[in-house]
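ARCHIVE CARD
Drawer: 12
Card no.: 0347
Subject: one protein chain, sequence and derived structure
Cross-reference: see card 0346
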Amino acid sequence: MKPDMFKTPVTILVGLGFPTNVCSVMEAYRHLVEWPASNRDAAHRAALNACSAALRSEIEAETVRGLFAAFAEKHDLLAPDAFVPEAIRSKRRPGSSQVR
């Protein structure tokens, strides 16, 4: 695995609400630099700074993933299924949204 890849992607909603997986530091960085300047806040700044640090090999990709996911959650960008932990998701019955 490349050092800038996330172990688990962060699934966010883009455009008209289409889900997309953000799988690496570089992908997170691209989404953050495209974020409108008028909507940038402390969460954005922290995630963007983390991306820059990871691209310089100063911090790990998973640290960026956590900050990017926090940014996405704060701005209601996380895809609904992204709120469900992987352990719970794997226990779901096919075709059902309920947990066993």
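Annotation on reverse: The first strand starts at residue 5 and ends at 14. Confidence is low (pLDDT under 50) at residues 96-100.
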